[in-house]
Amino acid sequence: MKPSKNTEKPKKASAGSVSLESFRDRLRVRFSFNGKQYTIGLGVSDTLENRKLAQAKVKELQSDLVLQRFNPENLSKYKLRKDLNVVRPPEKKELTLTELWNKYVSYKSCTVKAKTLNEYKTTVGSHINKMPVQDISKALDVRKYLLAHTTDSMTKRILIHINACVKWGIKNKLVELDKSPYEGMATELRHNWEDNSIPDAFSDQELEAIFDAFANHKGVLKAGTTDVYRGYAYNFYLPFVKFLAYTGCRPSEAIGLTWGQIDDKLQTITFDRSIVHIKGEAVENEKSKNNRSRKFRCDDKLTNLLKSIKNLKVSPNELVFKSPTGKAINYNNFSNRAWNKVVDPLLGRETTPYQLRDTFITKQISNGISAAVVAKWVDNSVRIIEERYLDSDKITNICPRN
């Protein structure tokens, strides 16, 4: 006997029947009302946690359909997204120029030299703190303010630093800019030395006169006497002055030089540190101003100078040149007190100890040493030597070699 076919029609979903389904990994509910099909996206992805929350919405919808509270004009009440407490991150506060600069200085404090860090905090930082323009993007306004309140040279320096600061901020997602608006702005301005970059090397006669003046300085002659002196006798500094003239090194490198940087035969010097004074304190720096170390060969004149001042018992860490009190020489004190009182009256013009560097460079090139070699000796580039140190007036009488 053949089984009879089941002719019973499938039952329709009862009133209030709601199905929960996943579509493209998003949860939604489907149901019918008054003969019309409805689909409501719940606004959440298909996860176990969201399914538990969705079941509560399904029950709420079923209840509204059965009790005839369903309003097709208000479908949003069944979306899960509406019931979620969305925690929005607070709006990101844009940093001011001062705030960004302080972060930049803090970041650089472990890598830059003490003198540079002091410049960041005082000279540059002071101008930035005073600026009423604190919007980082207002580069033209920043430039306008600086030009109105300081020199072109200082404005150039500050803009160079601000540009580096902003580029750092962009790289580290602290500034929402595509590129620094300060890029290239400093190139339009010139430093004072670029406009007045006339090196002033001492002639051989002037240099010998400077040596003699230091050698014979016994202090200030007391009024009414012919052999009684008072004050400091600056002949103490003669070896220091000669060393600057014989090496062309920076004063800070000579001030920081220790006997451990000179070989036992006094024939090779390693320049790899310096000392500068910041707020009256001597601060040691490793390597040169350009973060390099270099070897310097001594000629007989320099070797003899070092022999004349080296004691039999010196430690490697002992300074070669000291102040009268046995401490590191303070360059500003030496320049303003000893140099200005001994040299300027002698030559009848304002000079600085740095001109001994001009003198060394000019003299070496006059003697036929290439600018590239001299640049290595003094830790500079050929361009900087030609622009800032080489006294062209002193080499105009040199004839080309055949």
What assembly state would you assign to the polypeptide chains in this entry?
single chain
- CATH T-level topology of the largest domain: hpI Integrase, Chain A
* Spatial separation of the terminal alpha carbons: 131 Å
| Main β-sheet, spatial strand arrangement | 1-2-3
For the residues shown, what is the average pLDDT?
A: 84
Order of helices and strands: EEEHHHHHHHHEEHHEEEEHHHHH
* Beta-strand segment tally: 9
Q: Determine Rg (CA atoms, Å).
A: 40 Å
Helical content stands at 40-55%
Describe this structure in words.
With 402 residues, this protein is an alpha+beta fold. It folds into 3 domains: 19-83, no CATH class; 97-195; 204-395, Orthogonal Bundle (hpI Integrase, Chain A), CATH 1.10.443.10. Helix content is 42%, strand content 12%. The chain has 15 helices and 9 strands. The strands form 4 sheets. A 3-stranded antiparallel sheet has the order 1-2-3, covered by helices on one side. The longest helix is centred in the middle third of the chain and has 20 residues, at 152-171. It is elongated and about 125 Å long. Residues 1-14 and 82-88 have low confidence and may be disordered. Belongs to the 'phage' integrase family. This is Integrase family protein. Residues 197-402 form the Tyr recombinase domain.
Topology:
Elements: E1 19-23, E2 26-33, E3 36-45, H1 48-66, H2 80-83, H3 97-108, H4 114-130, H5 139-149, H6 152-171, H7 192-195, H8 204-215, E4 220-221, E5 229-230, H9 238-247, H10 251-255, E6 268-271, E7 273-278, E8 281-286, E9 294-297, H11 300-309, H12 331-347, H13 355-366, H14 371-378, H15 382-389
Antiparallel strand pairs: 1-2, 2-3, 4-5, 6-9, 7-8
Helix pairs in contact: 3-4, 8-9, 8-12, 9-11, 9-13, 13-14
